[in-house]
Specification:
The complex is a heterodimer.
Chain A lengths: L1 H31 L6 H19 L3 H24 L7 H22 L4 E2 L8 E4 L2 E4 H23 L1 H11 L11 H26 L2 E2 L3 H16 L4 H21 L5 H15 L14
Antiparallel strand pairs in A: 1-4, 2-3
Helix pairs in contact in A: 1-5, 1-6, 1-7, 1-8, 1-9, 2-3, 2-4, 2-7, 2-8, 3-7, 5-6, 5-7, 6-7, 8-9, 9-10
Chain B lengths: L2 E10 L2 E11 L4 E5 L6 H8 L7 E6 L2 E2 L5 H7 L1 E3 L12 H8 L8 H6 L1 H21 L15 H14 L4 E5 L10 H14 L3 E5 L3 H7 L2 E6 L2 E6 L1 H5 L2 H8 L6
Parallel strand pairs in B: 3-8, 3-9, 6-7, 7-8
Antiparallel strand pairs in B: 1-2, 1-4, 4-5, 9-10
Helix pairs in contact in B: 3-5, 3-6, 7-8
Classes of the chains: A mainly alpha, B alpha/beta.
Chain lengths: 291, 255
């Protein structure tokens, strides 16, 4: 029993990271119908921001997190402006290929600056509590609470504020939203800023949990977060959160009961089966097109 | 002069969709644009509202050039429109459809919304009140929380107009307001259009196929065919114009 509880906690931790990154994929998809394949690499840049700020400026956790989120948000907005906006009317495949290119560019630039894996300083005191047979670390508590807090904040922005309403409207009909007096480009920039800053937050927290980072760390995590977003129903914000936690749970439970080499095999098989039965994801809805 | 279009020409690739279109609209007028399918009527609306950028020519609204401006800027200047095929935000509630059109009137950003929850709440409540007042004027306030896709067709049309009014326009462009409405409701629709015109002190340009509607309420009519203006004038002149009859009914036809 304790073992299962312990693993559930680990699952929540991993799931929150996936969910935070998945939100970035799903938001950009919702608003531009493109997959921002550079998003996993922005997560990696977030981790490196954390490394740089913590190592050279020696700031504590909160300022490091904020600087990292703001830095990556600016980078995300700049990428949209320079690489994606000129392709807004282009076929979506071209935009997706551009995103892959931007991702490889980010990896390569980081590889030039940091050719070797770097070790991120620990920013949080190593406190653990033992309740019953379950061990909880301060880091785990912070990762889970902060992630859920950020998700609630995003949910509030999307559901309650005017900018959020504009985002949802754009995901339905890009052509007419500007005719309501809504500045389309500004809303798209805000979407990128929000999505990428959540990815950066995930990067900072991940680099605290697994402190050795390298420029390719975003590739596999990015893929998994993307799959979380698809499982939840791409374009759906609550779906991305659910998808992230499901993938986290499946992975941890596989490792808990089977050899760890089975992890990705079982996880991805389950996801394939789920998509056969729910092709639009858990919360996704088919959008019928008139023929 | 509220709106002045001069020598507006628009090409889609090699196809000339609108050629040498000229229009002068005085404040308070109600003008009709008619013409067979594919005549370029909706394209004219798309050019005025900035959805398309005119290949040549100039469109001025209260002396300001519109060609080259973004659609949201043009909306903010005071031009709103409805669509031939209803284009509401289907999943959003009736209330939120109207609120989103008040975007340029809201005075808080998301950061403020988070930092000053108090001011946000009062600002948000003010937005909701304004939107509810508008819905009440259109007698739709009791549907406020309904998803707009669940409304019957006629109410969806009315909501589209209410939404357009939320942007506080001086000029309203109605694209086939009678599409899909049965002939018995045409009289009601005519009264409704006259009523919003008085109520909001509006200037209106409307595109329509229903001759009865156009001939009854428009003060001046412009007839397009294959992108070119083939006639313009008072309804009575248009009714007896041989070119118009030909475009609509073939040679020898009568309206």
């Amino acid at each position: 029993m304790d073992y299962i509880l312990q693993q559930s906690l680990n699952a929540l931790q991993l799931g929150s990271i996936y969910a935070l990154i998945a939100l970035g994929y799903t938001m950009v998809y919702g608003i531009l119908t493109m997959i921002n394949f550079a998003h996993g690499d922005l997560f990696m840049v977030g981790a490196f921001f954390c490394f740089i700020v913590a190592t050279f400026l020696k700031l504590s956790f909160i300022p490091t997190l904020l600087i990292s989120m703001i830095g990556v948000a600016l980078l995300g907005v700049a990428i949209e402006r320079v690489a994606y906006r000129p392709l807004r009317q282009a076929p979506r495949v071209s935009a997706v290929i551009t995103a892959l290119g931007v991702g490889i560019l980010l990896e390569s630039v980081m590889l030039v600056i940091f050719p070797y894996p770097q070790s991120v300083p620990t920013l949080l005191p190593n406190i653990t509590w033992t309740i019953g047979g379950v061990t909880i670390s301060l880091l785990q508590v912070i990762i889970i609470c902060l992630s859920i807090g950020l998700m609630l904040l995003l949910d509030f922005i999307v559901r309650r504020t005017m900018v959020g309403m504009a985002m949802r409207a754009i995901s339905w009909d890009k052509v007419i939203v500007p005719l309501m007096g809504v500045p389309l480009n500004l809303i798209i920039s805000v979407t990128f800023a929000l999505g990428t800053s959540l990815g950066a937050a995930a990067g900072v927290m991940y680099s605290q949990a697994f402190p050795v980072i390298d420029p390719y760390m975003g590739v596999l995590i990015g893929w998994k977060a993307f799959i979380s977003a698809v499982v939840g129903g791409i374009g759906n914000i609550r779906g991305a959160m659910i998808g992230g936690f499901i993938l986290g749970a499946v992975e941890i439970m596989v490792v808990a009961f089977f050899p760890s080499t089975y992890r990705d095999f079982v996880a991805f098989t389950l996801l394939l089966v789920l998509l056969i039965f729910r092709p639009y994801g858990i919360l996704g809805q088919p959008r019928p097109q008139k023929v | 002069m509220l709106l002045q279009a001069k020598h507006v020409t628009h090409y889609f690739g090699g196809l000339c969709a609108v050629s040498d279109f000229n229009l002068e609209v005085q404040k308070g007028e109600l003008i009709g644009i008619i013409g067979p399918n594919g005549a370029g009527k909706t394209t004219v609306f798309n050019l005025i509202t900035g959805v398309y950028k005119a290949t040549q020519g100039s469109i001025q609204f209260e002396g300001q050039e519109l060609v080259g401006r973004k659609p949201n800027e043009i909306t903010t200047l005071g031009i709103a429109r409805t669509f031939q095929n209803i284009r509401l935000f289907k999943e959003l509630s009736v209330l939120n459809n109207v609120r989103i059109a008040a975007y340029s009137q809201t005075n808080y950003n998301p950061l403020e919304a988070l930092l000053h929850a108090g001011r946000f709440n009062s600002a948000e409540q003010k937005d909701i009140d304004t939107a509810m007042d508008l819905l009440a004027v259109f007698q739709m306030d009791n549907f406020a929380d309904e998803a707009s896709k669940n409304l019957p067709y006629g109410l969806q049309r009315r909501l589209e107009i209410a939404r357009a009014m939320a942007t506080k326009p001086k000029l309203l462009l109605l694209d086939e307001p009678a599409a899909g409405i049965n002939p018995n409701e045409i009289v009601q629709l005519m009264e409704f259009i006259q009523w919003i015109r008085r109520q909001f002190d509006l200037t209106i340009i409307l595109i329509e196929h229903q001759m009865r509607l156009v001939m009854n309420i428009c003060e001046r009519i412009k007839v397009l065919d294959f992108g070119a203006t083939i006639a313009e004038g008072f309804p009575i002149e248009i009714q007896h114009n041989p070119k118009v009859m030909e475009a609509y009914l073939g040679e020898g036809g009568e309206l």
